[in-house]
Amino acid sequence: xxxxxxxxxxxxxxxxxxxxxxxxxxxxxxxxxxxIAALIHAxxxxxxxxxxxxxxxxxxxxxxxxxxxxxxxxx
Length: 75
Description:
Elements: H1 2-6, H2 8-12, H3 17-43, H4 51-74
Helix pairs in contact: 3-4
């Protein structure tokens, strides 16, 4: 049970638990920050005009690159 909760998924993407926690934590914090910027933009359209979309594109590219690297790990 412990392995399934904490290690199975990180291992399936070729990472240690610690590495996976750092990557997923970073992505989560960036998404929270982007969400806050989007909410500010909703109220004050002059601010953060491209912050949310830029962040989403950057994270998508990073995550797509990681999944491409995952194919090498699984092979």
